[in-house]
Structures are given as structure tokens and as C-alpha cells.
Amino acid sequence: MYDINILIIRFVLAKIQMKINLAKSAGFCFGVKRALKIAKEIAKSPEQIYMSGDIVHNEKIVKELSRLGIKRIKHLPKKTRGIFLVRAHGEGKKTIERALALGYKVVDATCPMVKEIHRIAKTEEDKKRQVIVIGDRNHDEVLGIIGQLRQEAIVIDPKEKFLKKIKRIKDTPCSVVVQSTQNAEIVERIKSLLHAYIKDLRFFNTICNPTKTKQEEIKTLPKENDLVIVVGSKKSANTKRLYEIASSINKRTYWIENENQIKPYWLKEIDSVGITAGASTPEETIRNVVSCLKSFAKNNLES
């Protein structure tokens, strides 16, 4: 016969077991999946493959591609054989032209949504309009966008003061594109400022759909959970944005790159944990984070 007190304790433990809620949008977006598929396919080639940086901003993926023989370089070697792989963030026109001039075969893994930003920017420049890019000044994607143009683009970095720039071009016809992973709410505020100062303004909201979906979901996740964990590389712009939004809503938000960075004390008196992950975070990393949290939760119940 069971001890009624033991049954009650077991029932209570079952009721208070920590819940782990994974965001539906967590992890790879279409552009990242496509870029990795292209990279792994051409890695089978006997020719040497080069990239001018990381194919996506995730250290685990970078190491994996390095093991497959894809080399990261700052400058293309002057040789007539080999493959130049254009990363998901895109490249400037001059970089691709140089690769072709040196005899490289160019394989383009640029995200199609980023390619669309390139197309819009070039089309607007052809119409004799000043191109404005809202984005992180030194981010690979932004450098790739402005690298498509003949004339100098104006970059509006949300972290910088930019009103003086706007006032100088108030009488110039301007067209705006946006880095695909920018914070949608901040971009809307910048858009309002631009419309207030610039008489002839065309605005193209080129924040990609996966980014919009992730940002909408991260607005509710921190409200519905005691603690939030954002998984992704510290180099990842879209992961950074998710962390900024989540931490502004729930102060118990942590940004980690992998499960080894989780601290057991974070889970003290926590009933639920919400998890999301940046667009370049591998599924395996997300699974490991979930498994680690389950393990900590189990140990807490048994201790």
C-alpha cells in the first residue's frame, strides 16, 4: 500500500516541473538553409573554394565548412583556378568582378531576399535617386548593399546620430532600403523622421519575413515565461535584435551561444523558460540547449 504523503509529494513535483517553451520560429531561416546547401554541395568539388568571411554568423557552421575544405580569406589569391563562394550576406559588385577577372568560378549563395534589396537599390540609383540604407554600418550585408552602387550610399545606423545627414539631403529625391534583420519598430521610427525632413522619399521595407516573424514571436515569449534564453552567435545581427527586444520586456533574459553557457542558478524559482534562436543557429545547438535545461530541471526536482 502506498504512503499517501509520498503520493502527494509526487503529485506536487509533477505540477511544479519547469516548462520549456520553444519558439516556433527558432533557428535557421530559408536563406541560411539555402546557403549551407550550396556550400556543402560545391565542397564536393576537387577545386579549392574561397569565401571572404563567414558564410553565416555562426562559429559551429564556420568550423564545419572549414573541415570540408572551404577557406576564409581577406584577399583572393592571384590564381586562375578555384571557386569563389559568395556568402549569404552578399558581396559588393567589385569583389565579384575581381574574382571573375582573376579566373575564379563564382557561386552565389546570397540570400534571395538580400538579392532583392540589391535589385531595389540599383534600380533606384538608376532613377537618379539618393540611396539610403538603414542598417548596421559595418555589417557584411550592409557593405554588400552599398557595394552594388556606383554612387556613395548614405548609411543610417540606428546606433548613431543621423539628423544632420538627413537635413543635408532634404531637397534630394531619396529612396530607402533596410538591412533585412533590423528591428522593425526602430525602423518605423526612423521612417517617420525621414518623411518629416525629406520632401521626395520612397521607402522600401526590406526587413525579411523570417525576421518579422521572429520579432513578433519574441514580443510574447518574454511575457508568457519567467525566463527567456536567446541562442545564437554574438556576431549575429538578427540574434542581437531578438535579445534586445526580449530583454526590454523581461529582465531575466540571457543570450547564449551554446548549452555550455547555461548557469543552473538562472533556473532558481523558475516555472517556465522560453527559448528562441537566431536565423543562423543550427538545430543541433537548439536541441542541446533544450536537453541541458531538462537535465537541470530534473536534477533540481531530485535534489
Summarize model confidence as the mean pLDDT: 91
What coarse outline follows from CA principal-axis ratios? flat
SSE-based structural type: alpha/beta
How many H/I helical runs? 11
Which superfamily, in CATH terms, is the homologous superfamily of the largest domain?
4-hydroxy-3-methylbut-2-enyl diphosphate reductase, catalytic domain
Q: How many discrete domains? A: 3
Explain the layout of strands and helices:
Blueprint: H1 4-16, E1 19-22, H2 30-42, E2 49-51, H3 59-67, E3 70-72, E4 83-86, H4 93-101, E5 105-108, H5 112-126, E6 130-134, H6 140-146, E7 154-156, H7 163-168, E8 174-178, H8 184-197, E9 201-203, H9 209-224, E10 227-231, H10 237-249, E11 253-256, E12 272-277, H11 283-302
Parallel strand pairs: 1-12, 2-3, 2-4, 4-5, 6-7, 6-8, 8-9, 10-11, 10-12
Helix pairs in contact: 5-6, 9-10
